[in-house]
Specification:
Length: 678
C-alpha cells in the first residue's frame, strides 16, 4: 500500500457505512509496475517508494483526540491531514506523467508549482522565480549566439534523477549512508528525503540564468563578426551582488547551529566552506582559494575565460528564496547541500576543480563525496534532448529531439533520436568526417555538427566528456543515436502564445468568480489569494489546469490568443455558439482530471447520513472522493461529451461561464487579445 492514509479512510468508511464506497486509488499507468523506462521509473518512485511522504503522526494523534480533521480539500478541515499529504503526492505524480509525455513548458509549470507547494511554501509566493526564467529565455535569448531552454530542461533533469534513484540500488545506498538513513535506501524515509533534496537541486539549478543572458547578449554582438571572446571583448560584470548573497542575523544564528558555531559573513563564504569540506582534500584546494574563485564569478568574468556562471546566481537566488519563505528556523544542512551542488554544476567543478579539457585532468567526481552534485552534473549532461533552441547558432546546430532510456541492470542506456528531416545536414557532416578520417585525423581539425557529431563519431565525445566529470563505474552509461520522423502531435501545442507571468493570477481570479458567483468587483486581490490558498493542492492545480486548457479550447473553435499585434479579427466575447462548443470540452478535461485523482462517480454522500446539512454532505463527498458530475474511470471521450448534455443548465454554466471571465482577465493581466483564425 503506497497511499496509506487514503486506504485508511477507505477502511473507516467501510466500517462506518457497511459497504466499500471509497476513496479509491486511480489505475496505474501503463508499465508503471515494472517498466525500466524514464516515465515508468519516475512514477513508480513517486507512487511506491515515497509511502508516508510528509505524514505527521502528531497531527494524526491530535485529530483522533479532538475528533476533528485538519487536512484541506475544497476547504480546510474536511479530510485527515495525512490523506491530504497522500493526495498532494498523487498530484505531483500526475503532473510528472503529463510532463514526461509532452515535455512542454506549460506542463513543467505545474510540476514546479506542486513541488513548491509541497516543500517550500505557497506556490504563489515563488511564482516569479520560476516563471521569469521562462520569460527571459523566450523573449531575450534569440539575440544570443548559442542558447537553449532551461525551464523544461530542469524538470527533465529532476525526472532523470528520480529514475536513477528508483532503479540503482548502489546510488540509493550512497545517498542513504551520506545522509544517515538507517534503511540504506531500502525503505521510505530516505526516498522521501531524496525527493525533497533532489527537487531543490534539480528544479532550481538554472534559475539564475536571467543574469547570464544579458552578459551573453553583449558578447554575441561581437561574435557576429567571428571575434572570439577575450581581452578585446566588451563585456559586463555585476556589482553590488550583496542582496543576492546576504545572510541576515537570524539565518546566521541558525547556520551556527549547523556548522560548528561558525558565523558566516555571506552566502559565498558559506558555499566555499561547504564545498571545501566535501571536496577540498580530494582535489587539493583550500577554502580561501574556493572563496576567491566563487567571488570572481559575478564581478570578474576575465578570470573565468570571459564567461558568466549562472550557477552562482542560481545558488544565491535560491538561498534568498528559502530564507524568505521557510524562515531561518527551517533551514537545514540539506538545503545548503543543494545550494553547493548548484554552485558546482556548471563550470566551477569542471574547470576550476577537475581541470576539464586540460592536460591536468583530475579524477571525476565520486558520488560518495557529494551525491547531489554528482547526480546533478550527470543528469544535466544527459538532458540534451527536446530543448527549444533560442540562440542563432543553436538553431543551426542539430540536437536530439527525443530519447529512449533503459535503466535496467543498474545501467543507463540512452538512445537519442534526431529529426529525419535533417538527413541532408547529417550526410554533409558524415562526408566531411569520412574525408577527415582518411586524410587528416588531427583531433583539432575534426569536423563537428553539434550535438549529433558528439554522439556519432567513433570516439563519442558526448560520453567521454561525461566520464571526465563524474565517475560512472557503478552506473555504466551507453549512448547511441539514430534518426526518425518527428511527431509533434504529442506536444499538444497550439497557435496561442503568451507567457506564464499570470497563470497563477488567472487561476486565483477564476476560483474567486466561482466562489462569489461572478460578483468579485468588491473582493480585494488579497482576499482572492487567501481564498485560493485555503484550497488543497489538488484544487489549486485543477484551477491552474483550467486556465492552461484555454489554448486547447480556443483551437477547437478556430481561435487563438496572443499578446503580439496580428492581422486577424479580434474577438470581444464568446458567442453562445462558441460557449456551447467550449463547455463540453471543459467538462471532458474536468472528468479526466478527476479520473487521474481517483474520484468515483455517484451521489451516495447525499443520502448516507439522514438529516445531514449541506456542509456535512460536502465533507463526506471529499472523504469518499465521490462526485455525481463525473463518470466511471475508463469512460470514452464520446460518453463524457454525451454526459455533458444531460447535466442541468446551472451545472453546464460552470463549464462555459468562466471563459468569458478569463477573456476579460487576459486583457487585464496580460495585454492578451483573442482572434479568429478565419
Amino acid at each position: 500500500m503506497s497511499y496509506t492514509a487514503i486506504e485508511k479512510m477507505r477502511r473507516q468508511n467501510r466500517k462506518r457505512f457497511g459497504e466499500d464506497l471509497g476513496p479509491f486509488l486511480p489505475a496505474s499507468f501503463d508499465g508503471e509496475a515494472r517498466g525500466m523506462d524514464l516515465k515508468s521509473a519516475v512514477l513508480r518512485f513517486l507512487d511506491r517508494r515515497c509511502t508516508g511522504l510528509r505524514h505527521d503522526t502528531e497531527k494524526e494523534k491530535t485529530e483522533r483526540t479532538e475528533r476533528k480533521y485538519s487536512g484541506r480539500s475544497l476547504r480546510p478541515g474536511q479530510i485527515p491531514y495525512n490523506m491530504q499529504m497522500d493526495l498532494d503526492r498523487l498530484c505531483l505524480k500526475n503532473e510528472m506523467a503529463k510532463f514526461i509525455d509532452s515535455g512542454v513548458a506549460e506542463d513543467a509549470y505545474t510540476v514546479y508549482y506542486a513541488f513548491i507547494e509541497m516543500f517550500i511554501g505557497e506556490g504563489g509566493k515563488s511564482q516569479s522565480m520560476v516563471e521569469l526564467l521562462s520569460e527571459f529565455e523566450s523573449n531575450a535569448s534569440s539575440l544570443l549566439m548559442s542558447h537553449r531552454d532551461h525551464y523544461s530542461h530542469s524538470v527533465y533533469v529532476f525526472a532523470l534523477g528520480l529514475a536513477i534513484y528508483e532503479t540503482n540500488a548502489w546510488f540509493r545506498q550512497v545517498f542513504s549512508r551520506y545522509y544517515g538513513f538507517a534503511d540504506e535506501g531500502r525503505g521510505h524515509a530516505s526516498a522521501c528525503a531524496f525527493l525533497e533534496y533532489w527537487g531543490l537541486t534539480a528544479l532550481f539549478h538554472d534559475v539564475g540564468y536571467p543574469f547570464e543572458i544579458p552578459f551573453e547578449q553583449i558578447l554575441a554582438y561581437f561574435e557576429v563578426d567571428r571575434k572570439k571572446r577575450g581581452p578585446e571583448s566588451v563585456y559586463i560584470a555585476y556589482r553590488n551582488v550583496y542582496p543576492l548573497i546576504r545572510i541576515e542575523d537570524a539565518e546566521r544564528e541558525k547556520l551556527k547551529t549547523l556548522y560548528h558555531n561558525r558565523a558566516f559573513g555571506d552566502v559565498t563564504e558559506l558555499l566555499a566552506a561547504v564545498i571545501t569540506e566535501k571536496l577540498g582534500a580530494a582535489y587539493g584546494f583550500t577554502e580561501a582559494e574556493m572563496d576567491r574563485r566563487i567571488r570572481s564569478k559575478a564581478g570578474s568574468p576575465e578570470e573565468n575565460n570571459y564567461y558568466m556562471d549562472h550557477a552562482f546566481f542560481s545558488a544565491g537566488r535560491l538561498f534568498q528564496e528559502l530564507a524568505r519563505i521557510l524562515k531561518a528556523e527551517k533551514i537545514e544542512k540539506y538545503h545548503i547541500d543543494a545550494l553547493s551542488a548548484i554552485m558546482l554544476h556548471n563550470s566551477l567543478f569542471k574547470f576550476a576543480i577537475v581541470g576539464y579539457k586540460t592536460d591536468d585532468l583530475k579524477a571525476p567526481l565520486k558520488a560518495e563525496l557529494h551525491p547531489l552534485a554528482w547526480l546533478l552534473m550527470l543528469c544535466d549532461e544527459l538532458q540534451c534532448w527536446d530543448r527549444t533552441a533560442y540562440g542563432r547558432n543553436s538553431r543551426d546546430e542539430l540536437h536530439p529531439m527525443a530519447v529512449d532510456f533503459s535503466f535496467a541492470g543498474q545501467k543507463i542506456r540512452a538512445k537519442y533520436y534526431y529529426d529525419q528531416a535533417e538527413q541532408d545536414k547529417i550526410r554533409a557532416y558524415e562526408k566531411l568526417y569520412d574525408t577527415w578520417e582518411k586524410e587528416d585525423g588531427n583531433p583539432k581539425t575534426m569536423p563537428r555538427l553539434k550535438a549529433y557529431s558528439d554522439m556519432a563519431e567513433k570516439g563519442q565525445r558526448f560520453t567521454r566528456d561525461i566520464r571526465q566529470i563524474v565517475d560512472l563505474e557503478k552506473c555504466p552509461l551507453t549512448v547511441s543515436c539514430m534518426t526518425r520522423r518527428a511527431d509533434y502531435r504529442e506536444k499538444h501545442t497550439y497557435l496561442s502564445t503568451s507567457n506564464f507571468l499570470h497563470i497563477y493570477n488567472f487561476a486565483v481570479a477564476l476560483h474567486s468568480r466561482y466562489l462569489y458567483s461572478g460578483r468579485t468587483s468588491s473582493v480585494s486581490p488579497e482576499k482572492m489569494e487567501k481564498d485560493f490558498n485555503s484550497l488543497s493542492l489538488e484544487y489549486k492545480i485543477s484551477n491552474i489546469n483550467q486556465v492552461r486548457a484555454f489554448d486547447r479550447h480556443l483551437n477547437a473553435i478556430g481561435c487563438f490568443y496572443t499578446d503580439q499585434p496580428v492581422d486577424y479579427e479580434m474577438l470581444g466575447r464568446f458567442t453562445p455558439e462558441m460557449a456551447e462548443a467550449i463547455a463540453p470540452l471543459e467538462h471532458l478535461r474536468w472528468v479526466r482530471d478527476h479520473e487521474m485523482m481517483g474520484w468515483s462517480a455517484g451521489d451516495r454522500y447525499e443520502t448516507l447520513i439522514p438529516g445531514a446539512d449541506d456542509s456535512v454532505k460536502a465533507d463526506l463527498r471529499e472523504q469518499l472522493r465521490m462526485h455525481w458530475n463525473t463518470l466511471p474511470a475508463g469512460s470514452s471521450d464520446e460518453k463524457i461529451l454525451k454526459h455533458y448534455s444531460t447535466l442541468p443548465p446551472e451545472v453546464q454554466g460552470k463549464d462555459s461561464l468562466p471563459f468569458n471571465s478569463l477573456l476579460r482577465l487576459l486583457k487585464k493581466y496580460d495585454g492578451v487579445r483573442i482572434y479568429r483564425l478565419k
